[in-house]
Predict the structure.
Amino acid sequence: MPNVPALVFEAHTPIFPGFYATVYDAYLDGEMEMKAKLFSLFTVVDEKSSINLDRISLRRWLLEASLYPQALRPSAYLKWEPIDDLHARAVVSYKTSSIDMVATFAEDDGRLISLHAEQDGDLTTPYHGSGEFVSRSDYRDVEGVMIPFKFSVARMAKGKTFPFWEGEVIAYKAHYLSAGENE
């Protein structure tokens, strides 16, 4: 189900020419696990579920949810609280964690422009966490659903943003199950 908070991420990241790391993050059933290995052999990160890691991973799920907008529909896990014509607070509660972020919408067409945490991020964590701010742009129609193809993620504290990741979707394949088809 697209509105159940969960994510899996795996990537091979170049460190410098000839050296790479394999990173793996999984937030499943309310618990996060993070791993990174050099050359897929030497473990350099092995973070297990904790109250803080699970909470920021739930925030990460919300930050990434606009890539599959069905997840942003109100549900047992996600509630929307109106603030004004262009802002709403998204409140996500899942298992033992709860987070909230403020969404900003475009005045002309209502697309989601950004999400930001109202609380300062902890810039001292050993991992960057989820970030406290994400901007979305370059929306494109994918099988009748508007999907943002560009985004930027930043840490936020003391009124300043510290971008740490920018991305662009270069290919998107939507797949919808038909009646009788298994997942």
